[in-house]
Structure prediction request, 304 residues.
Amino acid sequence: MQPSRSRYSATPPAERLPEWIRSPIGNASALETVQAVVKQQRLHTICEEGRCPNRGECYAAGTATFLLGGPICTRSCAFCQVDKGEAPTPFDAAEAERVAQAVQTLGLSYVVLTAVARDDLPDHGASLFTATMAAIRQRQPQVAIEVLTPDFWGGHREEAEAIAAQRQRLAAVLAVRPVCFNHNLETVQRLQGEVRRGATYRRSLALLAAARELASDIPTKSGLMLGLGETFEEVVEAMRDLRSVDCQRLTLGQYLRPSLAHIPVARYWTPDEFDRLGEIARELGFALVRSGPLVRSSYHAATP
Prediction:
């Protein structure tokens, strides 16, 4: 248990898990195949680390989300299942090639690359993405690659210098031409400080805006978790803010508490509420919307 999250341990679940949250494991054969290759290559996937409820379905569809940078994150977001620590694993230069080998072995057609926050690295992990995309394309040039990045923030005392460095790291990732750039807002503005430690609402919106400026032909995407105490109006406001920076794709899903050490679920949003928010998102101009209790950032990512 992480000391920074121990205050949540005394808070019991607010309500029983509703029926619409309980999903079948999906394609067990595909699940076992991917898990075996990932273990053999000493890799990590957010599908497994985050216990995604859709991983069997996605694996069977030829998609997977690889977690770069090792299994330990330098930040301590209150919702996340990934282990936290100030001393992450050393930089692994061979990781990119192992991911590429796994993609080739599994015959994947669409890959999502995400990463733990690596505030300890000079480029805050940007090279994890560029090196892995290059390695995959060396073996499988036809594979479509989406990136889901942290904010690449930090390392400078002056804000102007930090903004310039963040933009440079972002530009390096976009220069390798992912098919989609994803950075999650995660929650509404009021709850950012509690939920996303080390990240801010303003910085995330600025990152998405910069992505549109630097590569206007690459779609941008973001996601929100519901059930952390936000109101319907606050969710709509966050969607409006995302559209104000021309974010084109959106995912909305229910937050599920990984353990008693994590921030509790305030409530479970109903499928009808997700449907209504999805309708509003389309009315606001999002070109692609996935909205439902079990939707995650990479859910049906390969489907236009």
